[in-house]
Amino acid sequence: MKAQTRRKRAETLFFDSFGHYNFQNDFQKAGSDISTTRFAFAASSAAKGKLQSFKILRAGLCRVPICFMCRHSVAAYAIAHYGSNFMITLRHRLKGLRVQAIESEFKHGALSFPAGSFIVPTSQEDKNIHARIKTAVEGLGLTAAAIDAMPNVKMHELDLPRVAVYSTWGRTQEVGWVRHALDKFEVSYDLIYKERVRQGNLRAAYDVIVMPHQARGGKEIVFDIEPKSKPLAYTKSDRFKSLGVYGESEDITGGMGIAGVVEFEKFINAGGTLITLGSASFFPAEFGLTRRVEASRTSSQFYAPGPIVEAEILRPAHPIFYGYTQKTLPVRYGNGPLLQLPERDREQQVLMRFTGTDASVLSGLMKGAGETRNRPAIMDVPTGAGRVILFASNPCYRWQNHGEFNLLFNALLNHNDLAQRRSPAQKMKRDKSSIVFWYPQMNRLEHV
Fold first, then answer.
1. Which of 68, 99, 150, 202 has the fewest CB atoms within 10 Å around its CB?
2. What does pTM read for this prediction?
3. pLDDT in tens, 324-359
């Protein structure tokens, strides 16, 4: 009896000695050193259940995510967004279930759930909902809690988007790295080329189109490989049986052309979201999809072979930054465009900017850092009924900058809820260029 009491007390002290923690970059390999890893424990105090498992997961992290014993008192499961890239994997593994994201922090017991955390109500038709959540959360090493009441914070639906990844025929290698990241994190998507774009009706098939870093500018994306004297086919045949697995074309030259640009414009105006990464962000600016955005190039004296530089978050409440807690981020400079737009639009549409000093070069080489000073690194530009998200950086560079992956993943997860959230202080202000009037009845700003 005394031995059992001592063992129970030791277990209590052991579990109580750990706080919640989650790595921003969840790419530890199995067998990696976890000597400095802290562990997460979250059981619902209201449910008063018993622990069912405590194990080392394949990612090298230890988790006892939730109590699944007293299901009758569980209104929902809350899964904390501490910056794990596996949040998007979790959403896909819970396909068919209603999942919401909170827009501000709430606390449950000793745990804090920041903005972007998932809420999964248990009042759903799926009879296996408890087992599905338990398996998914434990398998991904996330932190969660069973809660007896829905949190009193604003939330929005996390409906899974229909995603397409656009690739030119001439730069498939660069696109392949984004595809690799999406595949590894179990994100469903279609790979499309100029042939699908020219067919039109993109909005009926897709909610989001991602255009990865590729080519050296918008012109090369639109016109791609220069036409030859005869068509250059890429199709499966008896002679070339391995071709055409990921796409086929009777002629890979010529690009999507102006007709393709028009189809992208229709897609955005009809409510679609276009996300451009790195050099692909020249495309919407140079071809009029974001009419007020200018995209220029660095001077011949500028030199930056992929350094890690500092960027400042200007709109921390924007869903793209769910899971990020610092005011600045290290990002990989992707030789994207130097973006700019009229001053009156900057406060709402520039989400992150390069600090652009010599001290902001954290790793690698950048000559002429001042040319990037205060230039937008991420922009969210409403266009028609849709929007264009422009990254001057490349958040999915090969399989390297995992800390930036969530910038893209958050944009995908929250594609229907990226509209700017204004604080009262921002609802009416005067600047050098205009007077801004806020009309609360119409939820609209007007510049005079």
1. 150
2. 0.80
3. 999 999 999 988 899 998 888 888 899 999 999 999
Q: What is the DSSP track for 88-107?
A: HHHHHHTTTS--EEESS-EE
At 57-84, the pLDDT tens digits run 333 333 444 444 444 588 999 999 999 9
In a 10 Å sphere around its CB, with 0-12 CB exposed, 13-18 middle and 19+ buried, how is residue 281 labelled? Answer: buried
Length of the chain: 448
Token duo for residue 441: 């009845």
* Final residue before a domain boundary, out of 111, 134, 157: 157
Tokens 């897709």, residue? 206
Residue (of 291, 263, 297, 295) closest to 281 by Cα position = 295
Looking at the fold, whether 344 and 415 belong to one and the same domain comes out as: yes
Task: Give a yes or no: residue 219 inside a domain.
Answer: yes
| Buried/exposed code over 118-129 (b: 16+ C-beta within 10 A; e: otherwise) | bbbebeeeeeeb
Which CA distances in Å does 438 have to 346, 378, 423, 424?
17, 25, 12, 10
Identify whether residues 216 and 131 lie together within a single domain.
no
Identify whether 435 is part of a domain.
no
> Which is nearest to 51 in space by CA: 59, 60, 39, 34?
39
Asked if the model's pLDDT at residue 94 lies above 80, the reply is yes
Write out the two tokens for 251.
């002629």
| Same domain flag for 52 and 130 | yes
278 sits in the region (left: phi over 0; alpha: psi -120 to 50; else beta) called: left
Residue 420: predicted pLDDT:
57
Cα separation values, 404 from 93, 200, 320, Å: 22, 32, 11
Distance between CA atoms of residues 293 and 379, nearest Å: 10
Taking the CA atoms of the chain, what radius of gyration do you get in angstroms? 24
pLDDT for 222-279, tens place per residue? 999 899 889 998 898 888 888 888 888 888 899 999 999 999 999 999 999 999 999 9
Domain holding 214, by residue range, is 163-430
Q: Are residues 258 and 205 in the same domain?
A: yes
Same structural domain, 171 and 150: no
